[in-house]
């Protein structure tokens, strides 16, 4: 983020809460959360998609606060982790999605991004 009336950049960030305990209003136990993660992992969802589903459907703000470990480690312990890391998968998927350059050949920023991702 940048400042409106100054030439320098501002500092804009957020931090997780310091207290890492389970909220009192959450009825989901650690075992229930693990079972949900196993079930969603068997449907071939990525760890971030599993976290979003748990956040939106089951009111789990941070899986690590409830279970003590993160989603990827839980999936690895059960053998459900993806073969390719999620960020690397999306980097390799991006140039394939930008194959519309034959129609939009003047779209220079996506052309440069596709070249960088393919290297």
TrEMBL record:
Database matches in Gene3D superfamilies: 4.10.860.130
Matching SMART domains: Ribosomal_S13_N (SM01386)
Keyword Transport tagged: no
Keyword tags: Ribonucleoprotein, Ribosomal protein
Chain ranges of the Small ribosomal subunit protein uS15 N-terminal domain: 1-60
The keyword Ribosomal protein is assigned to this record: yes
GO molecular function terms listed in the Swiss-Prot or TrEMBL record: small ribosomal subunit rRNA binding; structural constituent of ribosome
Entry's Gene Ontology BP terms: translation
Function comment: Component of the small ribosomal subunit. The ribosome is a large ribonucleoprotein complex responsible for the synthesis of proteins in the cell. Part of the small subunit (SSU) processome, first precursor of the small eukaryotic ribosomal subunit. During the assembly of the SSU processome in the nucleolus, many ribosome biogenesis factors, an RNA chaperone and ribosomal proteins associate with the nascent pre-rRNA and work in concert to generate RNA folding, modifications, rearrangements and cleavage as well as targeted degradation of pre-ribosomal RNA by the RNA exosome.
Family: Belongs to the universal ribosomal protein uS15 family.
Subunit-level organization: Component of the small ribosomal subunit. Part of the small subunit (SSU) processome, composed of more than 70 proteins and the RNA chaperone small nucleolar RNA (snoRNA) U3.
Record-given protein name: Small ribosomal subunit protein uS15
Species of provenance: Lynx pardinus
């Amino acid at each position: 983020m940048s400042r409106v009336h100054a030439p320098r950049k501002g500092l804009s960030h957020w931090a997780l809460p310091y207290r890492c305990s389970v909220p009192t209003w959450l009825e989901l136990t650690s075992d229930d959360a693990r079972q949900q993660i196993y079930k969603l992992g068997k449907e071939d969802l990525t760890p971030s998609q599993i976290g979003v589903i748990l956040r939106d459907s089951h009111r789990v703000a941070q899986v690590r606060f409830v279970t003590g470990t993160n989603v990827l480690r839980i999936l690895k312990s059960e053998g459900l982790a993806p073969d390719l890391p999620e960020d690397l998968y999306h980097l390799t998927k991006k140039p394939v999605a930008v194959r519309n350059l034959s129609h939009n050949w003047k779209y220079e920023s996506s052309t440069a991004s596709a070249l960088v991702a393919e290297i």
